[in-house]
Amino acid sequence: MRSNLPWFSKNAIIISAIALSVGALAACTSSSSSSTSTPTSASPKSSGSAASSAPINIGASLSLHGDFSADGANFEQGYKLWAADVNAHGGINGRQVKLTILDDNSDPNQAVTNYTTLINTDHVDLTFGPFSSLLTTPTSAVAARAGYAFIEGAGGAPTVFNTPSNQSAHNVFDVSLPIADEMVPFVNYIASLPASQRPKTAAYPMADDPFADPPVQLAQQKLSALGVKTVYSKVFPAESTQYTTQAGLVAAQHPDLVVLGSTDVPTVQAFIKAFAQQHYTPKMFIAAAGPDQGAAFTKAVGAGNATGMMVPNGWYPSVAIPASQAMVAEYVKQYGGTPSAVGADVAEAYSVGQVAAQAITATGGVDNAKIIAWLHGGHTLDTVQGTVKFDSLGQNGNADAFIFQWQDNGKNFVQVLPQGAAGTVAILATKPAWSS
Question: Among 128, 183, 192, 244, which residue's CB has the most CB atoms within a 10 Å radius?
Answer without folding.
Answer: 183
